[in-house]
Amino acid sequence: MENKPQEDLNEFLDRNIPDNLYHYTNFSGLQGIMADSEIWLSNMYFLNDRSEFELGIEYVIKQLQSYKDGFSILRPTKHFIFALEKAIEFIQEKEPPYIMSLTENNDLLSQWRGYTQNGVGVNIGFDKSFFANNSLHVFRCIYDSEKQKALINYIITESIFMFVGISNSQGIFENSNDIELSKFDEAITIAGQYFIDRTVLACSLIKSSSFQEESEWRLLYFKKNLDINFLNKGNYFKPYVKFKINDLDKSINEIYIGPNPERELCNLSMKMLLKKYGVDVNKIRFSSIPYRN
Question: Would 271 be classed as within a structural domain?
Answer without folding.
Answer: no
